[in-house]
Q: What sequence folds into this?
């Protein structure tokens, strides 16, 4: 007999099977996922996503006897008042009451519920989605490693030996243990040789010879006992290997939070940014996100404020663009960052400001951005009216003039939560919609 | 449960100290408890066991083990993943707690104990699995005849490797499709009646190589006369010719997987091997399906008896004993039929109750027992009697033979007759003089696999014309197949057979054809 402790064995033995199951049920899972995304009102859509798919689609059929029909005799425990020959009505629902054993599976369970891990969720969610202009990214995708000094260590490879630190330790130890210096020994030996060469040494010289010999004996013992360099002196330079991300992206989220943006519009914009946010987090090792919201003036805020705090005021879109330009110049040098921006608005703008926007975009922002997406949140009542891409508010019409010159600029309209996912896919569709 | 703690309370002998105190366990206390259990199991109960290998695992590993039907090694398939995500979700939402142990019919006998168990639970689990189940596996005739405990782990390793090689060579999709189809017929991939050759899984690998070589070198004579292009045209055969054809194919055949493996015209040799693997695994588990009540009853009886003896010897503290009683009571709980959580007869409860009852009959029989069980009543040797029963019965015959009137009364068993043609149910028998035998008969039948699972056989295959395969379901008491599922299983059959398949439901008594499903050629 023996006990084996398996607790430290590799976990996730079922991982492959789990992946196979998800691959198998992919169609249904994605459907369920889109459904749940559409209906979700708030909150982080990522983690612990419970997914319910029709059990039929992943059924493992067997030849089974039906729960109904025919004649059967069932033995059950716990008789109370029945006597032989009693008749009783058939209980509803087949199982339970009459003692009919519940079927193992098959009928009854029409939904198969389980939980996707965050990774699985995102994998499915972003499947066949890519950001446009990925060439830059692809070139930089691998993480480079950088060695940086991180003090000294007592072990390491000989190449990293720190001579200075080692010798300092050695010297300190030698002094502390009173190891004789070589010069001292040599001087003493020389003196001894001189004295011994004397044909008629005086008694004081004889005494000196004696002391010198004694001293040299002690010294030679001490030299042997106290090594010049002891292993405990040795120090190595220590290096830390730190990942040096050269795939970094910054995502600018611009949103109009003025009074004209009602709760519904904000909610839609919020969801759009959420998806975007998730997507970038997925794609890049390091993603900086800058949230800029604006009314008649713009401010960089944190995520919480961006999504959840209220503000009122007019609408001057260009303030947000100006703020973005400032942040960009101050913190995100172009040779190190991929710039992405998404702007959400209801399409309203202060008169004459649209021209200013156009100028900022085409002169400052678009040349620097990998991608700039504008989504306009339309009123449901106008949905039919505004299906036509050419008609629209002032901002919309102004922005449309950018489309021709700037392949990295895209714009879309969203009317309802159900529109978000398709639009999102369209915006970032794998095949780059417009030729570069 | 009138006698929960001990049948004959004896004072704890002086000098024995408790094996452990408190809930925490470590390997030293596990070992001590194991040795004490071993002493009782072997020297008192006279159990005969395979060497034990007890593995401590985490909850996650337990979930892994669940999904691969308890086997430490299993080939990969999405259906195991499905089971995993389901159990995982149930467990994480707190809807389901995990089993305390899983035990494998192998030599050495492997049992998994969860690390979360308290020391009392570990003791219970060791007595239950490492001794109760272990003894049953080693001694019951079904396991001896149908399984090879020595070779199963090696065989599973071989199967896993072989299947992953196939996946590399023939593609995941192809392998998955074949396995899906074979799994659909798993319940019909066993030899139910024919006395089998004692399996030897270690030779399987060698035999497979021989078969594959043989298949490459030879042509299936039976099929060589077929026209190259299948034409759906009936070629009239005389009755003798048909008979001859059936004889050549070994029909009728109840083991559908076996038939397809041997006679399907279009399977590649590796696909036949996959079917064979599924078939071997089905056969390996077949005894367990037939001995649920006995196997669990045996293990439960053994742990109950051992824990009580340990307590009587002063080796368990009162606290540990109370914890044990609480757990044991939950294991053997049998809700009555009208309770909302009633889910049929609990095999643990029935098996344990019957074995306790047999002990009672051996030790303190009533006149009624003497009349019903003259050969064991009052013999006193309950250990030998039970060992003999564990070795030589399966659920159906065990109940048929040993369910006593005393227990029928205690459980207040009754029998309902459910005729779909009538609007109401009828009480057929209750726990009285007239009812005992009928209840016993019916309960035994309820545990007989050949009644619980549909009796489906390969009846005929038209080799010359349409090449249609004919399956027959022999309908018992008019209980039909679950149609939707049956139809999709038929699709799987046709996938393995290569041509159209028909399934006829034939009334067992009258021979009348009750229904017919068909699946076209794939």
A:
């Amino acid at each position: 007999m023996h006990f084996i402790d398996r607790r430290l064995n590799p976990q996730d033995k079922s991982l492959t099977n789990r992946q196979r199951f998800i691959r198998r049920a992919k169609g249904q899972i994605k459907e369920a996922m889109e459904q749940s995304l559409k209906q979700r009102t708030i909150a982080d859509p990522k983690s612990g996503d419970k997914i319910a798919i029709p059990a039929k689609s992943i059924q493992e059929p067997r030849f089974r006897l039906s729960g109904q029909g025919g004649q059967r005799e069932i033995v059950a425990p716990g008789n109370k008042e029945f006597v032989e020959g009693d008749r009783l009505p058939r209980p509803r629902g087949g199982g339970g009451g009459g003692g009919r054993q519940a079927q193992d599976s098959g009928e009854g369970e029409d939904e198969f519920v389980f939980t996707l891990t965050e990774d699985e969720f995102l994998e499915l969610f972003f499947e066949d989605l890519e950001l446009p202009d990925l060439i830059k990214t692809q070139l930089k995708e691998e993480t480079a490693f950088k060695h940086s000094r991180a003090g000294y260590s007592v072990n390491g490879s000989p190449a990293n030996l720190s001579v200075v630190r080692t010798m300092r330790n050695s010297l300190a130890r030698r002094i502390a243990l009173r190891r004789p210096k070589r010069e001292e020994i040599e001087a003493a030996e020389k003196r001894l040789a001189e004295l011994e060469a004397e044909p008629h040494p005086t008694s004081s010289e004889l005494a000196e010879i004696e002391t010198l010999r004694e001293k040299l004996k002690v010294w030679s013992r001490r030299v042997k006992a106290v090594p010049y360099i002891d292993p405990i002196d040795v120090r190595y330079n220590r290096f830390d290997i730190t990942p040096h991300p050269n795939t970094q992206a910054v995502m600018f989220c611009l949103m109009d939070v003025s009074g004209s943006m009602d709760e519904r519009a904000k909610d839609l914009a919020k969801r759009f940014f959420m998806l975007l946010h998730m997507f970038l987090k997925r794609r890049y090792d390091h993603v900086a996100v800058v949230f800029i919201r604006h009314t008649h003036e713009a401010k960089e805020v944190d995520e919480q404020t961006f999504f959840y705090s209220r503000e009122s005021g007019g609408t001057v879109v260009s303030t947000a663009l100006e703020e973005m330009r400032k942040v960009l110049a101050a913190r995100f040098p172009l040779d190190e960052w991929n710039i992405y921006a998404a702007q959400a608005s209801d399409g309203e703008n202060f008169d004459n400001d649209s021209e200013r926007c156009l100028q900022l975009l085409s002169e400052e922002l678009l040349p620097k951005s990998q991608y700039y997406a504008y989504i306009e949140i339309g009123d449901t009542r106008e949905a039919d009216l505004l299906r036509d891409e050419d008609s629209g508010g002032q901002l919309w019409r102004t922005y449309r003039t950018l489309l021709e010159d700037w392949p990295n600029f895209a714009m879309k309209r969203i009317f309802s939560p159900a529109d978000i996912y398709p639009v999102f896919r369209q915006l970032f569709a794998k095949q780059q919609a417009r030729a570069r | 449960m009138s006698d929960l703690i001990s049948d004959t309370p004896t004072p704890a002998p002086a000098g024995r100290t408790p094996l452990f105190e408190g809930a925490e366990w470590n390997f030293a206390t596990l070992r001590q408890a194991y040795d004490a259990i071993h002493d009782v199991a072997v020297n008192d109960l006279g159990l005969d066991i395979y060497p034990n290998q007890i593995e401590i695992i985490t909850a996650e590993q337990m979930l892994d083990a669940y999904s691969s039907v308890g086997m430490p090694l299993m080939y990969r398939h999405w259906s195991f993943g499905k089971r995993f995500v389901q159990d995982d979700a149930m467990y994480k939402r707190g809807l389901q707690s995990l089993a305390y142990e899983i035990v494998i019919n192998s030599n050495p006998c492997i049992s998994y104990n969860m690390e979360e168990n308290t020391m009392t639970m570990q003791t219970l689990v060791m007595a239950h699995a490492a001794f109760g189940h272990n003894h049953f596996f080693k001694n019951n005739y079904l396991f001896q005849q149908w399984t090879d405990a020595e070779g199963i782990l090696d065989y599973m390793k071989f199967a896993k490797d072989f299947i992953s090689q196939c996946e590399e060579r023939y593609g995941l999709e192809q392998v998955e499709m074949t396995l899906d189809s074979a799994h659909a017929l798993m319940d019909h991939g066993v030899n139910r009646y024919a006395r089998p050759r004692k399996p030897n899984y270690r030779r399987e690998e060698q035999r497979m190589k021989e078969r594959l070589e043989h298949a490459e070198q030879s042509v299936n004579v039976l099929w060589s006369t077929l026209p190259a292009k299948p034409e759906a045209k009936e070629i009239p055969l005389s009755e003798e010719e048909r008979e001859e054809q059936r004889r050549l194919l070994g029909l009728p055949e109840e083991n559908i997987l076996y038939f397809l493996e041997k006679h399907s015209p279009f399977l590649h040799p590796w696909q036949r091997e996959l079917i064979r693997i599924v078939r071997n695994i089905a056969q390996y588990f077949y005894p367990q399906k037939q001995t649920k009540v006995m196997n669990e009853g045996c293990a439960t009886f053994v742990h109950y008896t051992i824990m009580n003896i340990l307590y009587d010897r002063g080796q368990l503290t009162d606290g540990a004993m109370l914890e044990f009683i609480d757990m044991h009571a939950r294991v053997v709980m049998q809700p009555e039929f009208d309770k909302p959580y009633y889910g049929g007869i609990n095999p643990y409860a029935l098996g344990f109750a019957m074995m306790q009852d047999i002990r009672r009959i051996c030790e303190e029989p009533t006149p009624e027992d003497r009349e019903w069980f003259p050969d064991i009543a009052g013999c006193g040797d309950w250990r030998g009697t039970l060992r003999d029963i564990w070795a030589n019965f399966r659920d159906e015959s065990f109940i048929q033979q040993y369910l006593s009137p005393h227990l029928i009364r205690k459980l207040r068993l009754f029998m309902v007759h459910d005729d779909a043609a009538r609007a109401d149910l009828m009480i057929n028998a209750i726990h009285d003089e007239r009812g005992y035998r009928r209840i016993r008969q019916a309960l035994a039948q309820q545990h007989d696999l050949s009644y619980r699972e549909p009796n489906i056989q390969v009846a005929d295959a038209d080799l010359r014309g349409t090449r249609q395969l004919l399956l027959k379901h022999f309908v018992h008491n008019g209980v039909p197949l679950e149609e939707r599922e049956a139809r999709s299983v038929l699709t799987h059959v046709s996938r393995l057979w290569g041509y159209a398949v028909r399934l006829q439901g034939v009334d067992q008594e009258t021979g009348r054809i009750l229904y017919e499903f068909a699946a076209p050629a794939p």
User: Anything to note?
Assistant: The two ends of chain A are 70 Å apart (CA to CA). Chain A touches chain B through 68 residues (CB under 8 Å). DSSP finds 14 helices and 13 strands in chain A. The domain at 245-427 of chain A is CATH 3.40.50.410 (Rossmann fold).
